[in-house]
Specification:
transmembrane, NUDIX_hydrolase-like_dom_sf, disulfide bond, 1385 residues, NUDIX_hydrolase_dom, transmembrane helix, 32 strands
């Protein structure tokens, strides 16, 4: 058994080891009660003696410790037992102990004396008193290295503000951005190794990234040990700066083993603490991995759970504080994380859920956590006592026998209430969030709770965004905040944009820019002033600005430091860049100042004490100043050396925009994110995903998703399997895609085969063999059109070749005329492609699109060459040149065949590689020309003298030099094989080259053969070996580079071919002229609109049915009341008997049911039923009828009466009596629901989700924190509720009654109210009073009579939404009104 060392008889030398220089301290000996004095909280020490005594413990300069040892004893207390009463229980060693648990010698000297006035019975409220604490300082865990923490012993009644002040002001802790309360099993338990690692890593990650405090029980066991080891592992793997995680252990002082080593009235700096688990017995050691300890003392020993009330109050107090960090002011959020646990843990979860604190349950950790996790997905009615009993037998198999039947009922009720608040409950499952994602589960739990919290307008969304910015978790902001659930206006993001810039959070700046923030609107004069006013103090530019301000103050002889203005910034910039720099910002005149031109946001932000919201307040007399926002913000980022911010801001400028518009960088647009989204859609529904590809979007210029991908040249998206499947589907038209190609060709050549089962179709109406539409469906399929065009083109080329080689007569034959007619049809088709504009792009745009295609250019080139040859051919004198030109045209038409082959998966990629290699050839020819021309000119000059014939000059310089590369070396170049007969000496023979320089006597060559041979060798060396191998290497590099993406490129280009033949007339040339004639007649004569073929097929929004968002089926609605069974009855400390859902009906047998009785005494009520439940007084009440002025009739008919008390018609509530209601039986109420349309300034009705929006009249009554409908309980004999009369003036009461008579009754009957009991309940009539016309006279009169209300009342017209903060039962009435009027809810 541990004892308190302050009272243990030890030697002075031993005591010195515990607390230095403490041997002579009178506190080391038993003291009288008069030695202690009670001092007020949070007062500074006024005793000079005590101050000098404490200072003696520390050397000079330790001001922090001096302040601590003078502040703590005067503001923080401990508790002492002042009266020894012998207990029936003994200590672990068998010794007699007091009722408080301590031994006699551990009490004060006066406590062991005979009682005089203290009484005989031990009463903790009387016999335990507060005294200045004697245990605080630094705790050092002996034998565990340099582990050091802070600790303090506090009274269980210590105000939370005092502890929070100690932690933030004296311990130096920064206020947290998040409070993580970890609770669970206090004893050691076993977790799966993988789950343990995931939990540890996720917990410390969320704490480290968000700047959170982790609060646990502080002992070295159970969940507290798991948290401590998680922090230890993180600190070992990170640097000292990164490993600073605040872990606060709140433990019971009376259960801490070895706590005597922590006692030191002057403070232990440090106090040596030994962690001894072997000898701790029933007590617990402190965990060495926690950084701070708050040891709660209630004056007892060995009693666990003492710290829970103080911990709850402290957590609640911290969660109500406002933290300012990163330019954002937030209320500190709190989340409860649960591992394992027993009955106490269930109570903690239930209290947290009741108080609105989100909880994360770690499934797989054991016991309570697993029980809740197992039933969390079940509908509440299915969570029965039998189900809970079965789960408890599995997860509490060791202690299951201890669960009584009443305990089972209580657990079932609490678990039902916990699961009912699903928005506050998050179950972390290992397989659901993945490894190391506990942090995401914790943060998502907070956002889920925030989203479902009642609020006015957009308060919750602002709060969530401020949390994300404060935590610096842009991943959470993307996934949880910027969703389709809420539409953000760019101006709403301006304050948080400024906060992100100031706190240097580039990822958030990038996110806000993506969400539509425009720097032109954001970066105004006042914003820049604010940004410079909140620069980092460590920045050089900031210090120079302060110097400029000091100089200005001295110059003006003022006592107050002037505010930073942009001309000060300009002055510092000139100092840094040189005086030659022009002033960037002019100095405004005293009467004028540039103003901000953006609206006021509804976000309260603070940075370093100055309010950002003041930035957005407009004032008159300001002059607008035009600035370059990118330049100004870029300078602001650069002068602070914030590289990432500078790069992001620079990317918003014109120079960055030019780069982003290039094809290479356009791939970095949001389009690359599409494949992942499209994959998810395609995986769920292939058909709908393919329709999305061609769905016209009005928001994107009436284009389609596929068109955007093509414009961005996003090959990754177009080559997606789903997109290619869609293209294949379009390629085959209405036919099945598994038809063999040979079947299609056979039916194309002999169409009667269509009426057999040789070819199958997808559509059922085309499946009958005798269907006539099969013919049209077959010949309009793009694959058939393509095959017919291929057949037609090959026929054209064969006929063309035959005419050129066999049948080219002076006068054209019929075959040649057929070629001319064929070509005319090709020209008409090219003209159609150029001018046919179904989308209304215009001629210029269509021409641009047409000539962008290489194959169209080749077509035009071939046609022009053919027309040129045809013109020459028709002139007799140029017949032969015409045939030559036509032959060249034939070559061009043959090259056009490559476009046809691109549809082949085998040949298509190879054609792409050939096209890329052609570019390499052009670069190679440039290098080759240098060597060919240089060698050719030198060779010609050395060998030939004055060759004047240009054709032979070209042959000698270029042609012969080029052939030399391939081995055709001129015979005369070395003089050995020279033959005078092969050349012309004077150059007069037009068929022979001119002879080289020769001797006139013997006609032998006289040119230097050795030189020409050397030049030839060098030429062949560089061209044959170097350049040709270079070309091969270039080809190889291109092949390898292109081969990796050939499939993607081919799939991308395949779309162009499919789109071309999808929009092409079905008939092949020359029969295509019939289709052209049809188009001409339809558009030219009949004036019919053109047929759209944009992007294969565009699905209209009406054709694409909206996704049927049938999520998980809502749990079946129960008819049982819920609010009427809350365990804590409102306005009292009475706890209801737990009633699970299945035990609510009176017809269900419930032998254990023994509810407490509670009836409040309303002294302010003139009429109320008797306070006691005596049978004599109850028999005077007449139920199910009018009882004097009191109407005891129920809207639900006759109700049962048992033992003189009526029974609630909806079943048990867990409480007898009438509670806070004034009558037994039904208590009638009236709730008018007054609504009007929500309108714009122009009077038009505002819509949301295509439904009209309502505004409802709500009120906040005195002493109430929530809003409510203007109505309430009816006093006996009254027609209007008292609360309604408070709102309206007396003269308007009759008129309002007329409005109620004209209104529509939406509810009449039982109201689920927290005040209901087994014997008293609320029944109400809800009437909808709707003003349809904004000029309604009655509505204007109502508004005028609302102005004379009680000043303590708050009344407003509020937008009707399911998230407005009203009573839960009132929101049900609003839902019925919205359903009645078919409005948004």
């Amino acid at each position: 058994m541990a004892v308190r060392g302050r009272r243990t008889k030890v030697l002075p030398s031993e005591l010195n080891k515990v607390c230095p220089e403490r041997a002579d301290d009178p506190a080391t000996h038993p003291r009288k009660m008069s030695d202690f004095e009670v001092v007020p909280n949070l007062q500074q020490s006024s005793s000079s003696v005590s101050k000098s005594r404490r200072k003696a413990h520390f050397p000079a300069g330790s001001n922090e410790k001096e302040n601590l040892i003078s502040w703590i004893p005067e503001n923080i207390r401990k508790k002492e037992c002042t009266y020894f009463v012998e207990s029936s229980q003994t200590s672990d060693s068998g010794r007699i102990v007091c009722e408080c648990g301590y031994l006699r010698e551990q009490h004060l000297e006066d406590a062991a004396k005979p009682p005089i006035f203290l009484g005989k019975e031990w009463d903790p409220s009387r016999h335990i008193q507060e005294m200045p604490t004697d245990a605080f300082g630094d705790i050092h865990f002996t034998g565990l290295g340099q582990k050091m923490g802070k600790y303090v012993r506090v009274s269980s009644d210590t105000p939370p503000r005092v502890i929070y002040h100690l932690m933030t002001q004296h311990w130096g802790l920064d206020a947290p951005n998040l409070l993580i309360s970890v609770t669970g099993g206090a004893k050691n338990f076993i977790m799966k190794p993988r789950l343990k690692n995931i939990f540890r890593q996720g917990l410390v990650k969320v704490a480290q990234t968000t700047g959170a405090w982790i609060i646990t029980g502080g002992s070295h066991a159970g969940v507290m040990k798991q948290v401590g080891e998680a922090v230890r592992d993180f600190m070992l793997s990170c640097s000292h700066k990164e490993g600073e995680i605040v872990t606060i252990g709140i433990a019971t002082w009376g259960t801490v083993y070895n706590r005597e080593s922590l006692i030191c009235p002057m403070g232990g700096f440090p106090a040596e603490y030994v962690l001894d688990e072997e000898n701790q017995g029933s007590l617990s050691c402190l965990d060495s991995n926690h950084s701070h300890f708050i040891l709660v003392d209630d004056g007892t020993h060995g009693r666990y759970g003492v710290e829970i009330p103080l911990r709850t109050r402290l957590e609640k107090f911290i969660s109500e504080q406002t933290k300012v960090k990163g330019g954002v002011a937030i209320k500190i959020p709190i989340v409860c994380v649960v591992l394992e646990g027993g009955p106490g843990t269930l109570d903690t979860i239930y209290n947290a859920i009741t108080n609105g604190t989100p909880c994360v349950i770690v499934e797989g950790s054991g016991r309570v956590a697993d029980v809740i996790a197992q039933v969390a997905n079940l509908p509440v009615p299915k969570i029965t006592i039998a189900v809970i009993q079965k789960k408890l037998s599995v997860f509490f198999h060791d202690t299951y026998e201890l669960f009584t039947e009443r305990k089972l009922v209580e657990w079932t009720k609490k678990i039902q209430d916990i699961v009912r608040s699903r928005h506050l409950l998050t179950i972390f499952r290992e397989g659901r969030y993945g490894q190391q994602d506990v942090d995401v589960a914790i943060l998502q739990a907070l956002f889920k709770a925030s989203r479902n919290q009642d609020h006015f307008g957009r308060e919750n969304w602002d709060h969530q965004l401020k949390l994300a910015v404060a935590w610096n978790r842009v991943d959470i902001a993307r996934s949880e905040i910027f969703t389709d659930d809420h539409e953000w206006k760019p101006t709403d993001l301006h304050p948080v944009m400024a906060a992100a810039l100031i706190s240097n959070k580039p990822e958030f700046v990038k996110l806000f820019l993506e969400q539509g923030v425009r720097l032109k609107e954001f970066a105004t004069w006042d914003t820049l002033v604010y940004l410079y006013d909140n620069m980092a103090p460590s920045c050089l530019f900031h210090s120079k600005l302060q110097k400029v301000l000091l100089e200005e103050r001295e110059h003006t002889a003022g006592s107050k430091m002037p505010r930073i203005q942009l001309h000060h910034v300009s002055q510092v910039l000139r100092e840094l860049l040189g005086c030659s720099t022009q002033p960037l910002y002019p100095k405004p005149k005293p009467t004028e100042r540039p103003r901000l031109s953006i609206p006021v946001p509804h976000i309260k932000l603070n940075v370093q004490g100055s309010s950002l919201r003041s930035l957005y307040k407009r004032s008159a007399g300001r002059v607008t100043f035009t600035m370059d926002p990118v330049r100004d913000l870029l300078i602001w980022a650069v002068v602070q050396n914030r590289k990432e911010l500078a790069e992001i801001i620079w990317a918003q400028g014109d120079s960055a925009g030019t780069l982003l518009s290039t094809p290479e960088l356009s791939l970095e647009s949001p389009v690359p994110a599409w494949p992942g989204v499209f994959t998810d859609c395609y995986r769920k529904d292939e058909e709908r995903a393919q329709k999305l590809l061609t769905r016209v979007s009005e928001a994107w210029g009436k284009t389609t998703c596929l068109q955007l991908a093509l414009e961005a040249k996003n090959m990754n998206f177009v080559s997606h399997g789903g997109v290619q499947a869609f293209l294949t589907k379009v390629w085959w038209g209405k036919m099945c895609m598994d038809n063999g190609l040979w079947r299609v060709v056979a039916c194309m050549l002999f169409f009667p085969l269509l009426y057999t089962n040789l070819v199958t179709f997808r559509e059922k109406r085309l499946q009958p063999v005798g269907c006539l539409t099969r013919l049209r469906a077959f010949f309009t399929a793009p694959v058939v059109i393509f095959l017919m065009n291929v057949l037609s083109y090959f026929t054209f080329l064969l006929l063309f070749a035959y005419v050129l080689m066999v049948d080219f007569q002076p006068s054209p034959s019929w075959r040649e005329y057929l070629i001319y007619f064929w070509l005319f049809s090709l020209v008409c088709e090219e003209t159609r492609q150029l001018l046919y504009d179904p989308e209304g792009f215009g001629v210029v745009k269509m021409a641009s699109l047409y000539f962008r295609d290489f194959w169209n250019k080749l077509d035009i080139c071939g046609i022009l060459v053919f027309l040129t040859g045809l013109t020459c051919r028709l002139i007799p004198s140029t017949l032969y040149p015409g045939r030559i030109i036509l032959s060249l045209a034939f070559i061009i038409f043959c090259l056009r065949l490559m476009h046809i082959f691109t549809v082949s998966k085998t040949l298509g990629p190879k054609i792409i590689i050939v096209k890329r290699m052609m570019k390499d050839v052009f670069f190679f020819l440039f290098l080759l020309a240098v060597w060919v021309v240089s060698f050719g000119v030198a060779k010609q000059a050395i060998l030939i003298h004055n060759e004047e014939r240009m054709e032979w000059l070209f042959r000698g310089v270029v042609y012969h030099s080029y052939l030399t590369i391939f081995g055709q070396i001129p015979s005369y170049i070395d003089g050995v094989n020279f033959n005078i007969d092969q050349c012309s000496p004077n150059g007069t023979d037009p068929y022979k080259p001119k002879c080289p320089e020769t001797n006139e006597d013997n006609n032998k060559p006289i040119f230097p053969e050795w030189l020409t041979v050397i030049l030839l060798c060098l030429y062949l060396l560089f061209t044959n070996i170097l350049l040709l191998n270079l070309l091969i290497a270039m080809f190889n590099y291109t092949f390898q580079q292109v081969q990796q993406h050939t499939d993607q490129i081919w799939k991308f280009q395949r779309h162009d071919l499919i789109e071309e033949y999808h929009g092409r007339p079905p008939a092949p040339p020359p029969f295509i002229l019939l289709n052209h004639l049809q188009i001409l007649i339809r558009q030219g004569l009949l004036r019919r609109p053109p047929v759209h073929h944009k992007q294969l097929s565009s699905s209209k929004p009406s054709e694409l049915k909206e996704v049927d968002l049938k999520g998980k089926a809502e749990e079946s609605q129960t008819m049982y009341h819920v609010l009427a069974r809350n365990l804590l009855y409102p306005g009292s400390h009475t706890l209801r008997f737990p009633v699970p859902d299945e035990k609510v009906p009176w017809e269900v047998d419930f032998p254990l049911y023994d509810p407490p009785t509670y009836s409040a005494d309303h002294k302010d009520m003139a009429v109320q039923d008797p306070f006691s439940l005596s049978l004599e007084s109850l028999l005077k009440i007449n139920y199910n009828t009018m009882d004097g002025l009191i109407d005891r009739q129920s809207f639900h008919g006759l109700y049962a009466v048992q033992d003189g008390l009526p029974l609630n018609p909806m079943g048990r509530t867990g409480l007898r009596g009438r509670g806070r209601l004034h009558c037994f039986g039904p208590n009638h109420a009236l709730h008018p629901v007054v609504t009007r349309w929500r309108r714009n300034l122009d009077g038009s009705i505002i819509r949301k989700s295509l439904k009209k929006m309502l505004e409802v009249l709500v009120a906040q009554y005195p002493l109430s924190d929530v809003w409510a409908l203007p109505g309430g309980s009816l006093e006996p004999g009254e027609t209007l509720p008292l609360k309604l009369k408070w709102i309206l003036r007396r003269e308007f009461w009759p008129q309002f009654q007329n409005l109620l008579k004209q209104g529509t009754e939406i509810h009449k009957g039982y109201l689920d109210d927290p005040r209901n009991t087994d014997n008293a309940w609320v029944e109400t009539v809800a009437i909808s009073v709707h003003f349809d016309n904004q000029n309604d006279v009655e509505m204007k009169r109502l508004n005028s009579f609302l102005q004379g209300c009680d000043p303590e009342l708050c009344i407003r017209w509020q937008v009707l939404d399911k998230r407005i903060p009203l009573h839960a039962n009132h929101k049900e009435l609003l839902h019925k009104v919205s359903a009645l009027l078919d409005t948004y809810y």
